[in-house]
Design a protein that fits this description.
The complex is a heterodimer of chains A (about 300) and B (about 280). Chain A is an alpha/beta fold and about 300 residues long. Chain A is built from 8 helices and 16 strands. In chain A, the strands form 4 sheets. In chain A, strands 3-4-7-8-9-10-15-16 form an 8-stranded parallel beta barrel, surrounded by 6 helices. Chain A has a 4-stranded antiparallel beta sheet with strand order 5-6-14-11, with no helix packed on it. A two-stranded antiparallel sheet of chain A has the order 1-2. In chain A, strand 7, helix 2 and strand 8 form a beta-alpha-beta unit. Chain A is globular and about 55 Å long. Chain B has about 280 residues and is an alpha/beta fold. Chain B folds into 2 domains: about 100 residues, Beta Barrel (Elongation Factor Tu (Ef-tu), domain 3); about 110 residues, Nucleotide-binding domain of ferredoxin-NADP reductase (FNR) module (Rossmann fold, 3-Layer(aba) Sandwich), CATH 3.40.50. Helices cover about 20% and strands about 35% of the residues of chain B. The longest helix of chain B is centred in the last third of the chain and has 13 residues. Classes of the chains: A alpha/beta (about 300), B alpha/beta (about 280). At the A-B interface, strand 5, strand 6 and helix 7 of A face strand 14 of B.
């Protein structure tokens, strides 16, 4: 029995539900020695700004318990170099989702417009976990009114598949999910990294030059699963689940909690072939248990008493 | 400035590498030998990312990240090469690594990083290494001897902290040693040995690897002495192959290079030393 692994994520057709997360997979060619990208659903490229951008001074990363903290600050080659140089280098048959961010809403709309006409880009993911300068540095995704304006602006800038990647640093993820659905997003991705801090007792300073960083990896998986489940109870648009996936089993947990697809992130650093192993493992798990379609698992979590 | 293009390195592989040997080598030093099927060979200065401890059926989430380790030597012949790594235990990852047993398997990604630039025909190569940096310069010494005059200057806190001295001596290259406590060689810093070597007058290219303050001092001395200087940088890494962007090294001209993708060896004059952690 062959398992049907294909899914539709907000208008993006995926051969299987496994994508790789923005910021953990470069621009698509870095993993060529380790992984055939046509074996996974696709990848989300490093978040792009209008102009090339340098990140924070080092130290930019620090290991944390079952995870890592990062304060890279979105270093990237800029949207023009991505279109002109990076996209053409990606082999045929690989599904590419672009990720965008800016410091102002107008900027987001501009980058979105620039990518909207590009054939090779199957969809756009809006990174809402960036500090909004005008709000005094809180993330776009932390303020429902600002998030609504952001999604409205990018929705007008592209007719193609539009996903919004949500910040977990909020009181109610369901509220943020509803904002995105209300403003016409085709889907939501969650979660992004959780704000964290690591300290050096000898220097009496934060380990990261920037101070705060984003926590990712297995440590945040229970938070991510909870938020995916909460969001899935609140909205009908498809969800892409992200947060500490290490194995096919972890990915299946996200499907059960309501995710249509998943993104594998931090694990790519320690096992560059992980995304392929997760995809293959999900199909094998389903075959062994007589599950004919991976899509049948989406939202199948049974919560006693509900 | 570098005088010739570094050789283009082979693409890295991911391998499950069985441990052939993992023994304590005196002081805090450990010697690890792995069998790596499909190993394409390596250029001096290149490194591998190793799992912190043995890989088992269930994934270990903690410590999560692989550790960068310089490749010390290799033995090739047939499909599976053996590579040798010298390391010191200084944190949780290396402590776990030290507990791994022959027969157990480590996950390896590599070789990573760029090759090194050769000295000019008339240049003497001065290899200055301290602490764990010593492991990074062995292969460089092996490749350069025979085509360039080579002197290897090694430094450590004390004799117990030195690594691989006998191996360097067996190469037949000139070895000079300095220890802070005087337990072996000259009592003092390895940078003092560099000062003396530069004062000998011949045109020289300095290759240095070790603690950042040591390398910075070597860069200053080389510049003062009119010698080129190549520094092998280190930085916290998660991936090792240019994706996480964690290992950024600030450049004097502005912006950043990645130690894993663009280095680890850099022309010392290109680095903004103040901004290195």
């Amino acid at each position: 029995m062959s398992v049907d692994t294909a899914v539709q994520l907000g208008g993006i057709a995926l051969r299987n539900p496994v994508l790789t997360a923005s910021g953990t997979f470069g621009y698509g060619t870095e993993f060529a020695p380790f992984l055939d990208l046509t074996l996974i659903g696709g990848f989300v490229a490093k978040s792009l700004t209008l102009k090339p951008r340098f990140g924070n001074p080092p130290p930019r990363i620090a290991e944390a318990a079952s995870g890592m903290l990062n304060a890279i600050s979105l270093e990237n080659v800029g949207v023009e170099a991505f279109i002109a140089e990076k996209l053409p280098a990606i082999p045929d048959g690989v599904t590419v989702v672009a990720s965008i961010f800016e410091t102002e809403i107008d900027g987001y709309a501009e980058v979105c417009k620039r990518l909207a006409g590009v054939d090779r880009v199957a969809g756009i993911e809006v990174n809402a976990s960036c500090p909004h300068v005008k709000s005094g540095g809180i993330e776009f995704g932390q303020d429902p009114a600002v998030l609504a304006r952001l999604v409205r602006a990018v929705r007008s800038a592209t007719a193609g598949p539009l996903l919004v990647k949500l910040s977990p640093n909020v009181t109610s993820i369901a509220e943020m999910a509803r904002v995105c659905e209300g403003e016409g997003a085709d889907g939501i991705s969650l979660i992004n990294a959780v704000q964290g801090l690591e300290v050096d007792v000898e220097t009496r300073r934060p380990v990261l030059a920037n101070g705060l960083g984003g926590l990712s990896g297995p440590a945040i998986r229970p938070i991510a699963l909870r938020m995916v489940w909460q969001a899935s109870q609140a909205v009908s648009i498809p969800i892409c689940g992200i947060g500490g996936i290490e194995t096919a089993e972890d990915a299946l947990k996200f499907l059960l909690c309501g995710a249509t697809a998943v993104q594998v992130g931090t694990i790519n650093y320690l096992n560059p072939a992980a995304a392929g192993e997760v995809a293959e493992g999900m199909a094998r798990w389903a075959e062994e248990r007589g599950v004919g379609r991976l899509g049948d698992l989406v939202g199948a979590l049974e919560v006693p008493g509900r | 400035m570098t005088r010739s293009n570094p050789p283009s390195p082979a693409p890295p592989i991911r391998a499950e590498a069985p441990i052939l040997e993992n023994r304590h080598d005196g002081g805090q030093n450990h010697r690890l030998v792995l069998r790596v099927e499909g190993w394409p060979g390596f250029e001096p200065g290149q490194f591998v990312m190793l799992s912190p401890g043995a890989v088992a059926a269930a994934p270990r989430s903690d410590p999560l990240l692989p550790r960068p380790m310089a490749v010390y030597r290799e033995r090739r012949g047939g499909a599976a090469a053996e590579i040798e790594i010298l390391y010191k235990v200084h944190g949780r990852g290396t402590a776990l690594l030290a507990e791994a047993l022959p027969g157990q398997v480590l996950r390896l990604v590599g070789p990573l990083g760029q090759g090194f630039a050769l000295p000019a025909p008339n240049e003497r190569a001065l290899l200055v290494a301290g602490g764990t940096g010593i492991a990074s310069v062995y292969e460089l010494a092996a490749r350069l001897r025979g085509s360039s005059p080579v002197a290897v200057l090694l430094g450590a806190r004390s004799e117990n902290d030195l690594m691989g001295v006998a191996d360097f001596e067996r190469l037949g290259v000139e070895v000079r040693i300095a220890t802070e406590d005087g337990s072996r060689g000259v009592r003092g810093q390895v940078t003092e040995l560099l000062g003396a070597a530069l004062a000998e007058g011949a045109p020289a290219r300095v290759y240095t690897c070790g603690p950042t303050p040591m390398m910075r001092r070597c860069a200053e001395m080389a510049a003062e002495g009119g010698a080129a200087c190549v520094a092998s940088l280190e930085n916290t890494m998660a991936c090792g192959f240019g994706v996480c962007l964690g290992c950024a090294a600030p450049l004097a001209a502005g912006g950043f290079a990645l130690v894993c993708r663009d280095g680890p060896m850099f022309d010392a004059s290109e680095i903004a030393w103040d901004g290195l952690p």
